[in-house]
């Protein structure tokens, strides 16, 4: 069994500004355990988020105004926080919030 789960994280629409202006991250997670979206968000906060976590997370989930896609499907269709990650998944976070 592969000891790592490799997924691609893509931040756009301004969300990348919270991650050191880096849009694309390929990450390897230990696959000895099951990874769900809720657990991934905690990992993202602890390992990738560079500034202003309140602009990305709110109450244990992504804040309103950030669209989340799992393999090009709205995460609401795959179970949101309960979705179990699979190897080679692509998770996209698109901020729809724009300051003026």
Describe the structure.
- The protein is mainly beta.
- It has one domain (about 5-95): Beta-grasp domain (Ubiquitin-like (UB roll), Roll).
- The protein contains one helix and seven strands.
- The protein has one helix at about 35-45, and strands at about 5-10, 25-30, 55-60, 60, 65-70, 75, 90-95.
- The strands form two sheets. It has a five-stranded mixed beta sheet with strand order 2-1-7-5-6, with no helix packed on it.
- The N and C termini lie far apart (about 50 Å).
Topology:
Blueprint: E1 4-12, E2 24-30, H1 37-47, E3 57-58, E4 61-62, E5 66-70, E6 73-74, E7 90-95
Parallel strand pairs: 1-7
Antiparallel strand pairs: 1-2, 3-4, 5-6, 5-7
Modified residues (1-thioglycine): 100
Protein name: Ubiquitin-related modifier 1 homolog
Pathway: tRNA modification; 5-methoxycarbonylmethyl-2-thiouridine-tRNA biosynthesis
Biggest sheet overview: 5 strands, mixed
**Poorly predicted residue ranges:** none
How many strands in all? 7
CATH class: Alpha Beta
Radius of gyration: 13 Å
Short précis:
The chain is built from one helix and seven strands, in the order ββαβββββ.
Q: Keyphrases for this structure?
A:
1 helix, mainly beta, 100 residues, Ubiquitin-like (UB roll)
């Amino acid at each position: 069994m592969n000891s790592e789960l490799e997924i691609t994280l893509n931040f756009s629409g301004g969300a990348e500004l919270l991650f050191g202006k880096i849009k694309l991250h390929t990450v390897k997670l230990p696959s000895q355990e099951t990874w769900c979206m809720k657990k991934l968000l905690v990992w993202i906060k602890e390992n990738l988020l560079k500034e202003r976590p309140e602009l990305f997370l709110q109450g244990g989930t992504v804040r309103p105004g950030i669209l989340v896609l799992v393999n090009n499907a709205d995460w609401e269709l795959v179970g949101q926080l309960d979705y179990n990650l699979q190897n080679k998944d692509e998770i996209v976070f698109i901020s729809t919030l724009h300051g003026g």
